[in-house]
Amino acid sequence: MKKPLPAPDADTAEFWRGLRNGQLLLQHCGDCGNVQYYQQGICRNCGGENLTHRPASGRGKVHSFSVVHRAPGPAFKGDVPYAVLLVELEEGPRMISTYIGGKPDDVTFDMDVTLVCEPINDEITLPRFRRA
Amino acid sequence: MSAVSKSSARNNSLRGKIAVIGIGMSPVGKVPGKSPLWLAADAAKKALADAGIQKREIDGVLSSHAMASPFHRFSIAFSEYFGIQPTFSNTLQVSGATAATMFNIGAAAIHGGLAETVLVVAGDSLLSGLTPELALRSLTESRDQQYEMPFGIPVANTFAMTAHRHMKEFGTTPEQLAQVAVTQRRHASRTPGAQQTKPITVDDVLNSGMVTTPYHKLDCSLISDGGAAFVLTSAERAKALGIERPVYLLGGAECYTHEHLFLMPSLTTTGAVESSRRAYAMAGYGAKDMDVAGVYDCFTGTVIMMLEDLGFCPKGEGGRFVADGQMTYGGQIPSNTHGGLLSFAHSGIPGSLFHFHEVIAQLRGQCGERQVADANLGLVHSLGAGFATNATTIFGTERTL
Ligand SMILES: [Zn+2]
Fold it and tell me: Which of A27, A125, B90, B394 is deepest in the core (most CB within 10 A)?
């Protein structure tokens, strides 16, 4: 069974294009300075539309995590156990991702991690994280 | 909140204006061969009989979507199935907190003259009407398809990450989490019709197999069939009908802090702080006044965090509070005395309504051997979607008005 893949929409096409090019794009608000993830048509803080994309450094910390032993549906059965991460990026925003490049049991709170862009197909590249 | 604004809130609010005059529940647990609409209708028949009114007296119907039902407008499909034509209706969706919103909106509709007698009703068939795989998948697919779903994040995982961080920040232990399941199983053993009644120990929970850290299988709620229904009307009409033991809505409040887990302001302090603060203010009572509680318990750690956010114990003390016997009989706040989602039944939104059924039955003194003595004030907290939605409801008997 196929894994669910993101279907980019009008707000997010540029974000997914960025990942294809190896960059995790965050939105910076030119009016209030807010930095946001995920991609929206307006600033979540001030409502302005003066938003520009800038690549994140890719550095972050594990704010929380959970190692999945029972898969959410057949598509992920072959992957267990895997560690789902809540990563706090250096720029402030948090995001959901998964841990790669090591055993899920090695993940600890506040561990330093680094972005890895993993191509899934021609259109979609997923942002994952490995130990820094 | 100042004394002045509190008293004006009390004057203008729904406090004491609306009474629950009938409650009903279908069989729960494994109920094969019965659709969500049948489960809802069975509960509704019992609630009407309990109130002593006819179905034609219902002019409002509020319901929630059922995963095992093809009907998007469940409240409308229900009314047709039940043979009524209400003049006020809706199908609500804020995940687990929907249960509370049905009471809030129903009460506001009655108070505002949109309806006189509202039936709050829900039924779902997650155990028999869906395969476990499909049930899990429908939960999964309620997550964001771009930023959460591609990473294989079940809803269990979002709750797990909050509990995990709670353990890191406050030293909450797996044994303390397990104690919630053990306590509620003991409660369920005295509840007729509960799905799981066999006593369990902390070791049983810790050895039940890991689902998603820190949650083992027995830290997770059940998957069940079942429906529940309630009849609401104005306090005046409850009197006119000669209802013997009306239970009054004293406070109802909600709080919505985020949609995506990664935008949850804090993983360990939730919107329950604000929803309960507002509910207590409306009711004019505080946490220490509550005699019994129904605390949404999709997972064991959820209960520990909520006992803190609802003000029953200080932040970070929830694990010790539970291990110390404070959430059971003789403790500070007997909670989930029917067994909750962990042991009584969890059929989606109706699962959350079972907490309302139990707390109202406790306030009516109808709980037999599991009755909490002199229960006059009860709190129900329902929540959903990884703490995205929170709602607190406070009920009281006549003498608390
Ligand atoms: Zn801005």
Answer: B394
* Structural domain span for residue A64: 13-131
DSSP string across B246-288: -EEEEEEEEEE--SSGGG-S-SSS-THHHHHHHHHHHHT--GG
Q: Could you tell me the residue range of the domain that residue B66 belongs to?
A: 6-130+222-395
Assess A131–B contact: CB distance below 8 Å, yes or no.
no
C-alpha–C-alpha distance, residues A109 and B386, integer Å: 20
CATH code, domain with B230: 3.40.47.10
Structurally, chain A folds into a number of domains equal to 1
What are the φ/ψ torsions at residue A114 (nearest 5 degrees)?
A: -130, 145
Tokens of B271: 């919107």
Chain B partners of A72 at a C-beta cutoff of 8 Å? 136-137, 139-140, 152-154, 156-157
For ligand 1, the distance from its centroid to the CA atom of residue A43, given in whole angstroms, is 5
Nearest CA to B377 among B236, B217, B248, B220?
B248
Q: Which residue has the tokens 């959410």?
A: A72
| Chain A CA closest to residue B155 | A72
Contact A72 B261 (CB under 8 A): no
Asked if the structure places residue B144 within a domain, the reply is no
3-state helix, strand, coil in chain A (%, to 5): 15, 40, 50
Report DSSP letters for B359-370, one per residue.
HHHHHTT--GGG
B136 CB within 8 Å of a chain A CB: yes
In a domain, B146, yes or no: no
The per-residue pLDDT for range A68-121, each reduced to its tens digit, is: 999 887 889 999 999 999 999 999 999 999 999 999 999 999 999 999 999 999
Residue A69 covered by a domain = yes
pLDDT attached to residue B94 = 95
Let me know if residue B208 belongs to a domain. Answer: no
Chain B residue with Cα closest to A72: B154
Examine residue B51 and state whether it is found in any structural domain, yes or no: yes
A11, amino acid identity: D
For residue B134, the chain A residue with the least C-alpha distance is A73
Question: Cβ separation of A38 and B160 shorter than 8 Å?
Answer: no
- Chain A touched by B258 (CB under 8 Å): no
Shortest distance, CA A74 to any CA of chain B (angstroms): 8
Interface A-B: count of C-beta contacts within 8 A: 104
| Per-residue pLDDT, B11 | 58
Residue spans of chain B under pLDDT 70: 1-11, 131-143
Among chain A residues, the shortest Cα distance to B259 is held by A38
A53 CA from centroid of ligand 1 (Å)? 13
> Checking DSSP bridges between strand A25-29 and strand A35-36, what pairing results, if any?
antiparallel
